[in-house]
Fold:
Amino acid sequence: MRGATIAAALVLAGVAIPASASSVYVRTGALVDVASGTAKAGQCVLVEGERVVRVEACGAPPAGAEVVDWSPYTVLPGLIDLHTHLADVGESADVSAPIKTSPQATALIGAFHARQTLDAGFTTVRDVGTYRGLTDVALRDAIAQGLVPGPRMFVAGAYITAPGGGGEVNGVMPNDQLPPDMRLGVVCNAGEAREKTEYLFDHGADFIKMIATGAVLAIGTEPGKVELSDDEMRAVVEVATAHGSYATAHAHGAEGIKAAIRAGVRSIEHASLIDDEGLAMARKAGVWLVMDIYDGDWINEQGTREGWPEEYLRKNRETTQEQRDAFAKAVKMGVRLGFGTDAGVYPHGLNARQFAYMVRYGMTPARAIRSATLDAATLIGHEKELGSIAPGKFADMIAVKGNPLSDVRVIESVAHVMKGGVVAK
Structure:
């Protein structure tokens, strides 16, 4: 079994279920079917161990089953955020914070972020990179072993990035003096890209994250500039495919997006400046766009208040509305769109704020919810186990007051969370 396959098995294994909670009967006020975009009243879910066994009209619970009464609530599948940074210090005015924070402290901070994220109803995340390489692997494994409460994590291990590119901590010291664990994915050519990608899979990465263009929140890089060559991106994709996995690309600029699509990535992160040609290419190739259309407001408001670097604020102003307009076009064109927020840029636990923005820019509430459930599970390749409440799938559920299909903002306040058959909140 190869590294990525072992890691995925560990993630999906989850936390061991206590014998006393081996059979659970969940009463719902209404149950959302994300496949059809409808909700049905009076449904009950029978859970045995970690998985759903039956979904049926409520009746007498099976003998010996623990009853979980969520009848005052609407119940949805556990949510999936495809773009988080749990295992990192979070964004601030101090660009040197990742260097000042040890790997051990970063892991503990990540554990705190994981708890916040789970409490917010996100039972699975795709964590798309950390400056302290492989800290995300350690956090994922601790959660899977039941040592730390948090969502299932699928992790990238580190960023594949050009020297001084958007995946580096720039502007603090000469980059070649940065700690080695902060440069695990720095590459100068296709051979190094292949070698570093193999290294990350060998050390527990589930997928690979490439920094194809410059970044908004990185000193000395520009979002529209391509930073990885076509050969480097193709080399990464080839290795990922050989490991039974995939690569995703951080790409703001139109040319970098199109180059990454041609290289064979599964998804594009941000896609802020994507043009009509890029949208058409993504639709034709079935490439997912994961567009974080909420956090531009947070960066502008909180970043200005806290004194974040003016370079960050300028690039954010230049990309925020462009990204939202492109998102609206993508919705109309039928491009595949997954829910991803860039949590860590803003405080973890506020992930659900993005739903309202997705609706504002063209999605129905049902489609926005599906982007964070069944569609997100499809993107990560685990739609048979995650993303909906159905027999055989993991018993990941959340309970909210009100009807999210008419007011998606009710998901911003989650009353209860179940992950793998265990009530976590």
Q: What stands out?
A: The first strand starts at residue 23 and ends at 33. Confidence is low (pLDDT under 50) at residues 14-21. The chain has 13 helices and 17 strands. Residues 310-333 form the longest helix (24 residues).
